[in-house]
Structures are given as C-alpha cells and as structure tokens.
Amino acid sequence: KLNKSCRYFKMKKIKNLEAKTAQTLIKEYIDSNSVLQTDKSTTFSDLSDCIDVHVREISGTDEGKFNLRWVHIAISNLKKHLQTYHMISERMMQNYLDEFCYKLNRRYFGQKLFERLIIASIYPYWCDCG
Predict the structure, then answer these.
(1) Is the pLDDT of residue 42 over 50?
(2) Alpha-carbon span 30 to 99, nearest angstrom
(3) pTM (2 decimals)?
(4) How far apart are the first and last CA of the chain?
(5) What are phi and psi of 117, to 5 degrees?
(6) Using an 8 Å Cβ cutoff, are 126 and 98 in contact?
(7) Residue among 97, 79, 40, 88 at smallest CA distance from 63
(8) Considering only CA atoms, which of 44, 47, 70 is closest in space to residue 57?
(9) At how many degrees (to 10) do helices 69-82 and 93-105 cross?
(10) 50/31 Cα distance (integer angstroms)
(11) Cα distance between residue 105 and residue 86, in whole Å
(12) Which residues pair with 39 in a beta bridge?
C-alpha cells in the first residue's frame, strides 16, 4: 500500500543557495549513512564527502514530481502559513519555520497530542533571537 503521508520535516533558514552551505547543513543534520534524495540543482552537485547515497532527480519529470511531492507540498503549505502573519521579520524567520515544522510533524498525534505537548513544553524549541 502506498504511504500517503510524509514523515518528519526540519527547515533551516539559510543565507544563500551555494553548495558549501548545503554541505555544511547536511553534515550537521543528516547521518552520513542516510539516502539523500534531491533535485538536480547545482546546490547539491557534490555531496560525495557528506553522504554515502545521493539520488538526484529532475523535479519536472513524472518520477521527480512523485518522489519530491512532499517537499513541494510542504513548501506550498509554508507559504500559506506565512501569509497568516501581518508582518514577517527576517530576524524571526527561523521561529516561523520551527513553528510550521512543529505543527507539520505532530498533525497525526491524535489523542496523545496534549501529553506530547506537555513533554515538548519542557524543552527550549525556540532559537535565541537576541
């Protein structure tokens, strides 16, 4: 049976789309034994020293649209989520991303949502915005 839901998302505000930035983030957040699936952007051109298996697909093809669909859905939903705010500051952008991912990653918790919220409230999720 085809799984119709995504797993977990993590979003990070970045300054640019350079390959060096992507390599730094991948080394920091993704296990080197993972399988990384990306589009054929030049940002992800050389990740051989960061990760063992890297699958690159053209996002415009049928296979690319199928395999990267949750990335596109999440980006689209994030854009709609950001429209609910009156004024978005760049300084707070990581907090907006964290809030969106928090909600997205917990949407299927159901009856255990309150208990998990209590546990999560103990930990400092918000970054220091100075």
Answers:
(1) yes
(2) 21
(3) 0.72
(4) 47
(5) -65, -40
(6) yes
(7) 40
(8) 44
(9) 120
(10) 9
(11) 24
(12) 57
Q: Which residue has the tokens 């080197």?
A: 32
Locate 47 and state its tokens.
């990740």
HEC sequence for the chain: CCCCCCCCCCCCCCCCCCHHHHHHHHHHHCCCCCEEEEECCHHHCCCCCCCCEEEEECCCCHHHHHHCHHHHHHHHHHHHHHCCCCCCCHHHHHHHHHHHHHHHHCCCCHHHHHHHHHHHHCCCCCCCCC
Q: Which is more confidently placed, 42 or 130?
A: 42
- Joined together, the tokens standing for residue 5 give 């839901």
| 68 touches 57 (CB < 8 A) | yes
Residues in the chain: 130
∠ at Cα 79 (34, 6), nearest 5°?
35
Give 8-30 pLDDT, tens digit per residue.
Answer: 888 999 999 999 999 999 999 88
